[in-house]
C-alpha cells in the first residue's frame, strides 16, 4: 500500500458520519479481510460501527462492503481511523479523523496573543507520525525476535531510512508558515510500536488538546519545548511562527531506534527521524545538522481538562479491576513461531479473538469469550494496570486504549493525580508503576481495552468489557445497528456470497 495515499477525514461537530468501506484488496502478502475502527469516537448507541473485528463485527471480506454510521455526538478534536484486524494497520490502512468545533475556545478573538490561541487549523496542520517496516507486517513480525525494529520514522508518510540517499527521499514539510501566525498542529501517533519525543528547534508548543479533550493551560502544557506521544495518542500543539524566518527541524525522536541507527548515521543524514518546519519565502533547503537540547517537557500527569468533570472523581468506585500486564515466556520456539500461545496476558487471561464477535454472543445470549468482563449500567469503574515485565521503564511502556469511553487518569506512574480535575483521555501509557483509570458505564457495548502496540494486541494484550448487556439491546441506550451488519458474519464465514462481484 502506498504509505502516502492516506486520506484524512475532516468533519465538524454535530455532523453525522456515513462511511462506506469497500474492500478491494487483492495483495496476497497482506491481510485481505478488514474492519475499520474510528479511534476515539464514543459510538453511543452505535457500537455496531466501532469496527473492532471479533468484538463488534465480523470482518469485511474482499469484494464486500460495509457502511459505518455514527454521530460526532458533540465530540470535537483529533482522532484517527485504522484497521482493527490483526496487524493490518501496520501495513498502512489508517488516516487522520479531525472533528472541528466552530466554537472552539482557542480560536476565539479574545485569546489573541495568548499562548494556545491559533490562527490556522487546516489540512496542512495535520501531522501524522508512525514507524514503518519495509516488510509486510506478517513477515516483519515473527515473535521470535520480539517486536521488529522499524526501518523509518514517517511524518505525514515521509521519512528517511539508514543508508538511503537523502536526495532520493524527500522529507515532510510543515508549512510554509507565515511569520507572526499561530498554527494548531494536530499530531497523531499512528505507530505499531514506536513512541516519539517531539520537539521543534527554537520554538515552543502550547498543548491545547489531548485525545479529543480540550485542555486548560497551566505550567504543565504552556510553552513547553517537547512532549512524548505514544501509539494511539493525539495532541494539538499550538506553535507560533515567531522566530527568524527559515527552515527548522521538526524532530520526532523514536523509541526504539530505527534499524541501523547510530549517532554517526544521524550526523551523516540529519534528516533521519525528522521533518522540516518551513517559513514562507525562505530557501528550499534542509536545516543545519546538530541537536538542540530540550529542557521544558510537557507533564502529562498534570494536563487538566478545560471543563472539569461533572461528578467528583475523588470518591470510591463501585467496582475495581486490577489487570496486570504479564509476559508469558515459557513457550517453545515452535509455539512462538506458530503464535499458537499468546505472549501476553492482561489480567487473568489473554485476548484470543473468538470466532463469534462478542456483540453477536450478547445478542444470542451465548457465553462470553475468555478475558471478557461483564459490567453493569450506571456504575463507576476503576481499572488499575501494572507492567510486571522486567523492563517496566518508559522504554517498555504499554499504551492502553479503551474503546467507547474517555477515562479519567487517577493514578499515573504510581502517583495520584488531582482527582478534582484529573487528566481525561482515551489512551494512557503504562510504565514506572500503577496506572488507574476511571469511567462510568453510560454507553452500552462491548468495549476492548488493549495495548496500542499492535504487535502486543496480536499477542493477547487486551481485555473486553461487556458493558450493560441488557441495555445494549433494550431501552434508551440500546444499540441501533446499521443495515448490513447482520450479513457480515454469514458472508465472512462463507455461507453467503459477498455483495460485490469478485475478480
Ligand atoms: Cu504493549
Summarize the structure.
The protein is mostly beta strands and 503 residues long. It contains 7 helices and 29 strands.
Topology readout:
Blueprint (H helix, E strand, L loop, with lengths): L8 E4 L3 E7 L13 E4 L25 E7 L5 E7 L10 E7 L25 E7 L4 H4 L11 E4 L17 E5 L4 E8 L5 E6 L5 E5 L2 E2 L12 E3 L4 E7 L6 E9 L7 H6 L5 E6 L39 E9 L5 H6 L5 E3 L11 H7 L7 E4 L4 E8 L10 E5 L4 E6 L2 E2 L7 E2 L1 E4 L4 E6 L4 E7 L2 H5 L3 E6 L1 H5 L11 H8 L11
Parallel strand pairs: 1-6, 7-10, 9-17, 18-21, 20-29
Antiparallel strand pairs: 2-4, 3-5, 5-6, 7-8, 10-15, 11-14, 11-16, 12-13, 12-15, 16-17, 18-19, 21-27, 22-26, 22-28, 23-24, 23-25, 23-27, 28-29
The structure holds copper (II) ion.
Could you walk me through the main structural features you see in this protein, from its secondary elements to its overall organization?
The structure is a single chain. This protein has 503 residues and is mostly beta strands. It has 3 domains: 1-102, Immunoglobulin-like (Sandwich); 104-306, Cupredoxins -  blue copper proteins (Immunoglobulin-like); 319-467, Cupredoxins -  blue copper proteins (Immunoglobulin-like, Sandwich). The protein contains 7 helices and 29 strands. The chain has helices at 137-140, 263-268, 333-338, 358-364, 454-458, 469-473, 485-492, and strands spanning 9-12, 16-22, 36-39, 65-71, 77-83, 94-100, 126-132, 152-155, 173-177, 182-189, 195-200, 206-210, 213-214, 227-229, 234-240, 247-255, 274-279, 319-327, 344-346, 372-375, 380-387, 398-402, 407-412, 415-416, 424-425, 427-430, 435-440, 445-451, 462-467. The chain is globular, with a radius of gyration of 22 Å. The structure holds copper (II) ion. Residues 398, 451, 453, 456, 461 line the site of copper (II) ion.
Amino acid at each position: 500500500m502506498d504509505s502516502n495515499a492516506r486520506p484524512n477525514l475532516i468533519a465538524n461537530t454535530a455532523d453525522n458520519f456515513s462511511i462506506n468501506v469497500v474492500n478491494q484488496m487483492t495483495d496476497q502478502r497482506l491481510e485481505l479481510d478488514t474492519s475499520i475502527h474510528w479511534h476515539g469516537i464514543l459510538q453511543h448507541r452505535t457500537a455496531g460501527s466501532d469496527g473492532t473485528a471479533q468484538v463488534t463485527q465480523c470482518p469485511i471480506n474482499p469484494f464486500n462492503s460495509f457502511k459505518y454510521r455514527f454521530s460526532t455526538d458533540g465530540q470535537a478534536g483529533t482522532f484517527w481511523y485504522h484497521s482493527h484486524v490483526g496487524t493490518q494497520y501496520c501495513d498502512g490502512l489508517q488516516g487522520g479523523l479531525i472533528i472541528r468545533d466552530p466554537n472552539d475556545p482557542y480560536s476565539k478573538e479574545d485569546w489573541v496573543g495568548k499562548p494556545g490561541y491559533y490562527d490556522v487549523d487546516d489540512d496542512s496542520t495535520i501531522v501524522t507520525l508512525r514507524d514503518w517496516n519495509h516488510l509486510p507486517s506478517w513477515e516483519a513480525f515473527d515473535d521470535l525476535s520480539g517486536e521488529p525494529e522499524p526501518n523509518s520514522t514517517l511524518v505525514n508518510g515521509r521519512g528517511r531510512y539508514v543508508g538511503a540517499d537523502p536526495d532520493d527521499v524527500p522529507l515532510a514539510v510543515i508549512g510554509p508558515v507565515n511569520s507572526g501566525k499561530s498554527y494548531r498542529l494536530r499530531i497523531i501517533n499512528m505507530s505499531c510500536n514506536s513512541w516519539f519525543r517531539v520537539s521543534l528547534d527554537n520554538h515552543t508548543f502550547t498543548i491545547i488538546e489531548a485525545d479529543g479533550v480540550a485542555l486548560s493551560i497551566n505550567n504543565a502544557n504552556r510553552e513547553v519545548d517537547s512532549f512524548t506521544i505514544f501509539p494511539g495518542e493525539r495532541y494539538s500543539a499550538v506553535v507560533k511562527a515567531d522566530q527568524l524566518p527559515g527552515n527548522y527541524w521538526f524532530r520526532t525522536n523514536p523509541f526504539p531506534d530505527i534499524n541501523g541507527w547510530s549517532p554517526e548515521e544521524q550526523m551523516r543524514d540529519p534528516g533521519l527521524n525528522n521533518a522540516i518546519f518551513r517559513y514562507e519565502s525562505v530557501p528550499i533547503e534542509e536545516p543545519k545538522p546538530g541537536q538542540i537540547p530540550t529542557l521544558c517537557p510537557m507533564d502529562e500527569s498534570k494536563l487538566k481538562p478545560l471543563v472539569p468533570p461533572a461528578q467528583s472523581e475523588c470518591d470510591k468506585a463501585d467496582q475495581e479491576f486490577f489487570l496486570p500486564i504479564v509476559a508469558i515466556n515459557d513457550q517453545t520456539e515452535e509455539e512462538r513461531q506458530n503464535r499458537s500461545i499468546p505472549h501476553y496476558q492482561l489480567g487473568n487471561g489473554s485476548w484470543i479473538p473468538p470466532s463469534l464477535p462478542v456483540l453477536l454472543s450478547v445478542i444470542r445470549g451465548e457465553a462470553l469469550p475468555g478475558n471478557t468482563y461483564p459490567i453493569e449500567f450506571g456504575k463507576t469503574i476503576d481499572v488499575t494496570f501494572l507492567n510486571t515485565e522486567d523492563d517496566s521503564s518508559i522504554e517498555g511502556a504499554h499504551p492502553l486504549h479503551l474503546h467507547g469511553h474517555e477515562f479519567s487518569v487517577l493514578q499515573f506512574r504510581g502517583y495520584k493525580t488531582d482527582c478534582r480535575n484529573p487528566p481525561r483521555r482515551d489512551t494512557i501509557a503504562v510504565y514506572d508503576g500503577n496506572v488507574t483509570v476511571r469511567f462510568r458505564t453510560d454507553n452500552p457495548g462491548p468495549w476492548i481495552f488493549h495495548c496500542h502496540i499492535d504487535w502486543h494486541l496480536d499477542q493477547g494484550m487486551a481485555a473486553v468489557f461487556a458493558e450493560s448487556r441488557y441495555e445494549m439491546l433494550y431501552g434508551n441506550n440500546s444499540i441501533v445497528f446499521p443495515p448490513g451488519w447482520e450479513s457480515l458474519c454469514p458472508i465472512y464465514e462463507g455461507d453467503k456470497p459477498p455483495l460485490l462481484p469478485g475478480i
